Amino acid sequence: MAVKQCNQDQVTVSIISRNEGGSGKDLNQLEPSFMYTQIFKEILLDMEHGQKAVQDLVAYCQEQYEGNVQELQVIDEFRRTYNPTSAIW
């Protein structure tokens, strides 16, 4: 259980091309897309939604994947196992 919790706590998103990483370029001068990705990640992690938002998301996804049994099973798993403390599922 501790390993599972540890893995759920780690959220890593990095977008640096190989050319940028190995070119000797000053890391303070990274591409704007990297900076915006980091800001976007922080916004996503700071967002808080209640149970109603989760229910709305599930209902929307069920409508979009109506008739697709495999995707509906994934949506149902999300509905049953979603935990706000591990918001990136």
What does this structure look like?
The protein has 89 residues and is mostly helical. It folds into 2 domains: 1-47, no CATH class; 49-89. The protein has helices at residues 2-9, 18-22, 32-46, 51-64, 69-81. α4 (51-64) packs antiparallel against α5. It starts with a helix and ends in an 8-residue tail after the last helix. Mean pLDDT is 77; it is low at 1-6.
Explain the layout of strands and helices.
Blueprint: H1 2-9, H2 18-22, H3 32-46, H4 51-64, H5 69-81
Helix pairs in contact: 4-5
Largest sheet: none
**Structure class:** mainly alpha
Number of helices: 5
Shape: elongated
Mean pLDDT metric: 77
- Calculate the terminal CA-CA distance, rounded to whole Å: 17 Å
Concise structural overview:
With 89 residues, the protein is an all-alpha fold. It contains five helices and no strands.
Keywords:
disordered N terminus; 89 residues; single chain; mainly alpha; 5 helices; 2 domains
